[in-house]
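Suppose you are handed a protein chain with no further information: no name, no annotation, nothing but its sequence. What can you learn? This example shows the usual starting point.
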Amino acid sequence: MDTNITLQTTHQVLYVPASASEQHPRLVDDLIMLEDGRVIGRYTRMTKGELSSRMKTELLVTERDTFSRMQDDSYVTDPRLITEERFHEAFECLPPLRWETHLGVESFRFMEHSCGDITTIFARTGDQFWEFEDRFNMSRDALAQKVLAAANAASAQHIPG
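A reasonable first move is to predict its three-dimensional structure. Written in structure tokens, the prediction is:
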């Protein structure tokens, strides 16, 4: 193999889309363009067709930034009720980040990210405790509204008919 080949970065990636069996899209390789115009994987040195055949699955192409957003979106969850013990355990596990109370919602974020910009967020509304995955940089308004909506939905389910 000639090691003096000029490569051009495409800012595109090959990925396996999310499916019923895989809830998150999976990055396969960055794409580069060779001098002759062929597009191959930076690490695998294979074309999309060759890789798809080898992996026996459909591969898609998108911009790297689009893939990152798509992957992060696949990790975002709705708030789910947790125990007070779980809330305090998480609070004492690592130094809490952005610990604050806004619109009556006390919240903090884990310092560790589970994927890209996604982290675990814990919240308290009154005597209810919540946990969910979302973007670390989500605004305090968006966080409070998301938790309050979940709290309202949980309350509505407990109203006697």
